[in-house]
Amino acid sequence: MAKDCPVNNEIYDHYGERWYTAEDDPVALLRAEAWARNGWILSEMAGRFPGKSVRVLDIGCGAGFLANALAAQGYGVTGLDTSAPSLEVARRHDSTGTVDYRRGDAYKLEFADGSFDAVCAMDFLEHVENPGQVVREAARVLTQGGLFFFHTFNRNLLSWLIVIKGVEWFVRNTPPRMHSLRCFIRPAELRGMCRQNGLEVILCRGLVPRIVQEPFWRMLATGRVRGRFSFKFTRHTLMGYVGLAILEP
After folding, report:
1. Would you place residue 3 in the very low, low, confident or very high pLDDT band (cuts 50, 70, 90)?
2. Fold that domain 9-247 belongs to in CATH
C-alpha cells in the first residue's frame, strides 16, 4: 500500500490471523468480497487461457485471498504488497507453497516489460494517491493480449454514505480513515486511465452486498459479519465495481 494517501493503510499490518477469522471487523467484508470475485476471475482466466501456463501478478495482495486461490488452480502467482505482516499471513495460508510473495512498490514494479499474462488489483486502487501510475505499471508488465482485473469504488454521495459511513456505523472495530471518498474512482476515470495505457476495458459491473439475506440484517443489528455474508454482481456501478481490461496488441 502507498503511504502518500489519506487512507490509513497501516491498519493491515496488525490483522495477523484475523485476516481469516475476524467477524467483528470490516476485514470480514474483504473476505466476502474476495469469495465473490475469485470465482469470476478464475472463470475468466480458464476461458481465456485454456491449457496455457499462466503468470499472474496480484498487486496489493494483502493476506493472499486471491493469490492463494489462483495458485490452488495451478497458476504461477506473484503476490505484491508493502505490508510485511500481511505477506507472512498469506504465506502461511498458501496450501501450494508456490506463491512468490514479496514486498514491492506498485508505482515502480521491479519486473521486466511483458512479465505477466494477467495483473490483478483488487481493493487496491482506492488506497493510493496516483492510481493512474499503478495502471501504467500494470500495463507495462503485461504481455500483449494480457488481462488486467480490478475492483474499486465509485466516487459519489451514495458510496460515501454506504461504503464509508455505513461500515463505520454498522461494523464493529472499523478503524478511522479505512477509506477516503477523495480516493474513490469513477468508472469513466478508470476507463480513461486504462485507455491511456493501451488497455481496453471489456467488462465493468457492480459488486454489492446481498441485502436479502439474514447475515446482512444480523450485521446491522450486531456489528458482526458472519460467514454466510455474501456479495452479488449487478449491472449498476454506483458503489463497488469490478472490471476486466485487455492490453491491446
Report:
1. very low
2. Rossmann fold (3.40.50)
